[in-house]
Amino acid sequence: MRGMRQTLVALAAAAVLGAQAPQPADTILVDGHVITVDAQFAIAQAVAIRGGRFAAVGTDADIRKLATPATRVIDLHGQTVIPGLADGHLHDAGGGPGVDLSRTRSIADVLRAVAARVKQSRPGDVIVSNSDWHEAQLKEHRLVYRKDLDTVSPDNPVVLVRGGHEYILNSAALAKWHITKETPQQPGGRISRDERGELNGELIDRAKALVALPPAPKLTIEELQAQHAKLNAAGLTSIRYPGAPAEQYRLLQEMEKRGVLTIRASQLLRFNSADSAEAMRQAIASSGLKPDEGDEWVRVGGMKLAVDGGFEGGWMREPYVEPWGAHGTFRGVNTMKQAAYTDVVKELNREGWRVATHAVGDAAIDEVLAAYEAANAEASIRGKRWTLEHGFIPQADQFPRLKALDLIISAQDHLYLAGPSLVNYWGAARASRTTPVRDYLDRGFRVAGGTDSAVVPYPPLWVIYHFVTRDTISGGVMGADQKITRREALQIETINNAYLTFEERIKGSIEAGKLADLVVLPEDILTCPDKHIEQMQVSMTMVGGKVVYQR
Ligand SMILES: [Zn+2]
């Protein structure tokens, strides 16, 4: 028996090291706690890397045998290694040339930041903020409104951009763009008012089109490089851009050609004005891009569509709570009507494009289901990994229909940032059910995690922390019944994201043959105290066997 067991162990080692004689490694990492996130969730001590891929995973003794004098040896001193982390829905890393509100913690802080910019401006200059902030981070837990802004900028137009769905204007800005109480409501948008019926300066979704902001500076390779460096420092090795123009894809391709990419990027295309099958056909043709073209660095990941708003405009079956419900009449905004949306979805299916639709509220999910089912009736979308992006408020009757279409859930930690605001908009019951990852997993869905950065800050360890604890930045634990395990959270942030982009065979876990993307953490993320997951700093990040970040 003993001899037999030794043979089995030897065979297993051979399998790990590959069928042929093991080849020398470029790099080995030893004395680690390697959480492979393979199908068995195996733990190893060391890994060998060759040609940008994992050559072997095993014990220190096994792996050291693959070292030659030319091999780089990284001693981990007991640190933890996990597969490179991914974000399935990341627009950008935040920042920008506008007023920085990301670190404000009160209305006074916001107004101080705007006032400082006013002081540097000339008469008539339009003052615009960056979008990476949210009122839930302010101790008042409310938006800054027109009247607040007027106190620091009576003359210069001010437009606070918040997330992807909201502008807040001061009086000078409302006047500049001729927005008055008489301006008609925009389909798919909303011009908000205060309790007295006066404009409060808030424009939601398609109402933002009333404002023409100064053009944003053109995205450059240098800017993308700087953003990717920030993401690498947080442990990200793969991202999926949830809707950007073809020009950004071309920039990423150029970065790959120049060898300056430090993150793998899958990009969904987004054509904002393609509201009919014909317009979509033309937009695709003029982009010159093909579904799923690309390689392991840069690829086209499908087409992004949207049918509702965000926190302040998610389209619901039941009205918002008062006063947001406007006496039971406001259920959010429907940004693309069913008929046009279904038309576009069916066209994309005919052309072989994968569809990813932004849908926050339950009524928005109803619209997605109707369109996807119509497309599926023409040609099956099962196995094609179409997605529901966000899916905040799925209802019991929707789960079987989502499942029948074999959809993937692209879920983010919005609740972590915006918990108290969601209570204001939708009431405690809906807020605490927001993004019910436990329910999705229990029903057999594959969930891919992310942040929606810069709507929510990008650190992936915060996503894991939130999904595991359901704790929020300023509202305590919400929806504790939706907690998931740490193993599940790790899968959501690694292998499930690889699955989302049809790349589970080449990345998402630490296994021989896969791309050598990994993160080194100072503590064991499976056993450390909960709070440490949120506070932990990444020690090192590797992409394709190259160190792209070191603390
Ligand atoms: Zn988004």
Give an overview of the whole structure:
The protein is α/β, with parallel strands linked by helices and 551 residues long. The protein has helices spanning 2-17, 60-64, 107-119, 146-152, 171-176, 221-233, 246-258, 277-287, 338-350, 362-378, 399-404, 414-433, 437-442, 460-469, 486-493, 495-500, 530-535, and strands at 27-30, 33-35, 43-44, 46-50, 53-58, 72-75, 80-83, 85-87, 127-128, 158-162, 166-169, 189-193, 199-205, 236-244, 264-269, 298-306, 355-359, 387-390, 408-412, 447-450, 518-521, 540-543, 546-550. The strands form four sheets. It has an eight-stranded parallel beta sheet with strand order 8-14-15-16-17-18-19-20. It is globular and about 80 Å long. The chain binds zinc ion.
How would you summarize this macromolecular structure in one to three sentences?
By secondary structure, this protein is of the alpha/beta class. The protein has helices at residues 2-17, 60-64, 107-119, 146-152, 171-176, 221-233, 246-258, 277-287, 338-350, 362-378, 399-404, 414-433, 437-442, 460-469, 486-493, 495-500, 530-535, and strands at residues 27-30, 33-35, 43-44, 46-50, 53-58, 72-75, 80-83, 85-87, 127-128, 158-162, 166-169, 189-193, 199-205, 236-244, 264-269, 298-306, 355-359, 387-390, 408-412, 447-450, 518-521, 540-543, 546-550.
